[in-house]
Amino acid sequence: MSPAGRFPDLTSGRRPVGVVSFAQYDNVRREGARNEVEMLMPVVAEVFGSIGITKDDVGFICSGSTDYLIGGPFSFVAALDAVGVWPPRAESHVEMDGAWALYEAWVLLQEGEIDAALVYCFGRSSMGDLSEILSVQLDPYYLAPLWPDPTSLAALQAQAMIDTGKASEADFAEVASRSRRAALVNPKAQVAYDRSPEELLRDDYDVAPLRRHALPPLTDGCAAVVLAAGEKAYEWCDRPAFITGIDHRIETHSVGARDLTVSPSTTLAGEKAGAGAKNVDLAELHAPYAHQELILREALGLGDGVSVNPSGGALAANPIMSAGLIRIGEAARRIWSGEASRAVAHATSGPCLQQNLVCVLEGV
Amino acid sequence: MSEREPVTMMAAPMRLDYEFTAGVAQSKNLHGYAEGKFIGQRCPKCKKVYVPSRGSCPTDGVPTDEVVELPNTGTVTTYCVVNVPFAGQSIEIPYICGQILLDGANLSFMGLLQEIPIDEVRMGLRVEAVWAPPEEWGPTLASVKYFRPNGEPDADYESYKEYL
């Protein structure tokens, strides 16, 4: 019996919306030839082409990116050239990872006026000094003037975990070893290898206690997803990954005011999205630094039976502004294939896991 | 302490440096200037010619793969007279900024207009590019010194009304 017409129970919203297509760029350290539009075009073509639709089949387009990476204003407007918006159509943009663009599209789909949306995102770490660029997002009075780079802030978080006895450097190496090994079968991975945690512990420190293996790669990339509501989802996908719950929460931007060893915003978003309500087969967690996976696992209450980051996660490739949406895409395609029935995808933004989005996906 | 003035302002100087990637299509356009040529690209669907192209047709969202060389002549679709001094200004004011639609192109770009009194500049004015000496050519629009009237009768409004 065809599952068409059958939808999972929803924790968030009233209208079932499924992830039905996903595409991502070949994640690279530096895309030196193509501009953003030229990077996005093949990805948009693939996300439509793989399910046999065109831009005329979606009623809304939402993108995620930040002009600070490119150093030019309104780069998100220029990026629309990759889709082609004639005849004119509803379009929006968030200065955030594509996962939040997906959230906006999901909200609009709840209203019922449209049945499908394109979500895309792009970002390049190579055009400027990413450490400097990311420090500009910090509190402008007390933090930004010090130019603290994201790795140093993450190292403070990792050190706090060690100091409180929550984790050790060996635990960080364990995460990095498993993620990079999983990435060996991910054709889009930028960093993949088979090295034991013991071997990784011989790496030099980048910023103590973080050794080289605990850091994400610098990546240029982009990604796209198609969302479809109700029966439309079954029209384009045999087994859509329905969004049964989605929520995002934020903590204070003052890093010093937070307990960095926990992620209450992830916990809250997870509760609102119903992450722990039923069994979870796999989780795709956006943990740019190895130790952050441990914080997220605890925040979401994921047990040992959950397959975490079978794609290799952000340690395999960390295209800024896209790595969060890619987590949703990677989780969704494992539902399409039947590998998973219920998956949790997570995206983060800001220093030390400041803001977090949790998206629960289910196949029927 | 209580007698001190409250802090109402602080300076936090910020500078970020970038390495720009022009892209495949725009690089062809820029390299064209080093050879004294205007290089555009044509959309395979709507046949419009963009100079410069960013690699995609903004209407159809498909690659503009066909490379097109455009002539030195074009039409001023609209213009403005710059009278306001600003930081980094390299040209003596007043001067004229024109939107130039090269013959055969479907996208205008901004160019400097010279060799014409300011009060004679008009929409529809036919112009030609004045290139710098070849030894000064490089991958930059600065290879074109300016545009000047080429003496042809004004273009019919209908021919450029879509490009204002």
Overall mean pLDDT of chain A stands at 96
> What characteristic shape of chain A results from the CA principal axes?
globular
State the secondary-structure class of chain A: alpha/beta
Specify the CATH homologous superfamily of the largest domain in chain A: Thiolase/Chalcone synthase
Proportion of residues in β-strands of chain B: 25-35%
Short description:
The complex is a heterodimer of chains A (364) and B (164). Chain A is an alpha/beta fold.
Description of the structure:
The complex is a heterodimer of chains A (364) and B (164). With 364 residues, chain A is α/β, with parallel strands linked by helices. The mean pLDDT of chain A is 96. Chain A folds into 2 domains: 17-128 and 218-242, Thiolase/Chalcone synthase (Peroxisomal Thiolase, Chain A, domain 1), CATH 3.40.47; 130-217 and 243-362, Thiolase/Chalcone synthase (Peroxisomal Thiolase, Chain A, domain 1, 3-Layer(aba) Sandwich), CATH 3.40.47. Chain A has helices at 36-49, 67-70, 75-79, 98-110, 130-135, 150-163, 169-182, 197-200, 231-236, 264-272, 290-300, 313-316, 323-336, and strands at residues 17-24, 60-64, 90-94, 116-124, 205-207, 210-211, 220-229, 241-250, 282-284, 307-308, 342-349, 355-362. The mean pLDDT of chain B is 94. The interface between A and B is medium-sized, with 33 and 25 residues.
